[in-house]
Amino acid sequence: MRDATMVVGTILLLASGSAARAADRGEGSQGDVASTPRTAATPSRPVAIAGRLFLDVHELGKGKVTAEAVADAHRRDLAVQGKHGVAFKAYWVDEKGGKIYCLAEAPTRGALNAVHKEAHGLVANRIMRVSADNMTWAPTPGAKLYLDVHHLGPGKVTAGAVAEAHKKDLAVGPKHEVKYINYWVDEQAGDIMCLAEAPSAEAAIAVHKAAHGLLADSIEEVTEGR
Question: ∠ CA(23), CA(100), CA(147), 5° rounding?
Fold first, then answer.
């Protein structure tokens, strides 16, 4: 417990730099939320969401985060999300690379960062508005999970084109013991994120290569939390 507390302290110290960068981009503006006293970690009420889906990225640096520390921070997010009309769906932790990805329905990017600010102070480096393949994925317990990211550029991708590519991944995946279970598309930025169960990163890459040739810019082994 003491080690986990130290890690949480470390990421909160790093958050001050992230918060400053987010403020410069206008992503974290939400009145005086940053000064709101932290409330007890009690479950928030169910919230009706406008249907906007966002995926944010926290880049903390190698060796700066653990799955246990992120699970604690996520519990704090859940305790205050209802105040801001946000509903977190899942998160992924890349312990090796020091990255966290959070998926949530929210009215705005600012509302999503307002939850992070009030809960623990760790705001995102980047928030993408995305569309999803589905919202009912269920990773197989014990399977290795990989999240890959494709940066194609603004105007270079559509949700329809990605849906067709995903169908090809599903057809080829079994040959490599890979199961692509979800993907998210940020059409404005031209980014795609794919979630897959695979024996290795190389196997997941092989599926993309054989299916359509669209290789990811990065691929990370992650731990999923809800």
Answer: 130
Three-state secondary structure readout of 57-109: EEECCCCCCCHHHHHHHHHHHHHHHHHHCCEEEEEEEECCCCEEEEEEECCCH
What is the DSSP code (8-state) at residue 9?
H
Pairing of strands 87-94, 53-59: unpaired
Among candidate residues 148, 141, 149, 159, the one with its CA nearest the CA of residue 226: 141
Q: Collect all residues with Cβ–Cβ distance below 8 Å to 70 and sequence separation of at least 6.
A: 91, 93, 100, 225
For residue 185, the one-letter residue type is V
Please give the domain boundaries of the chain with CATH numbers for all domains.
Answer: 2-35+46-129 (3.30.70.3090), 145-225 (3.30.70.3090)
Q: How many whole angstroms from its chain centre is CA 203?
A: 22
Predicted confidence at residue 9, as pLDDT, reads 44
- Mind listing the pLDDT tens digit for each residue in 144-183? 999 999 999 999 999 999 999 999 999 999 999 999 999 9
Q: Tell me the whole-structure pTM to 2 decimals.
A: 0.78
For residues 178-193, one letter each, b for 16 or more C-beta atoms within 10 angstroms of the residue's C-beta and e for the rest, the string is bbbbbbbbbbebbbbb
CB of 82 closer than 8 Å to CB of 45:
yes
- Write b or e for each residue in 29-68: b if 16 or more Cβ atoms lie within 10 A of its Cβ, otherwise e: ebeebbeeeeeeeeebeeeeeeeebbbbebbbeeebbbbe
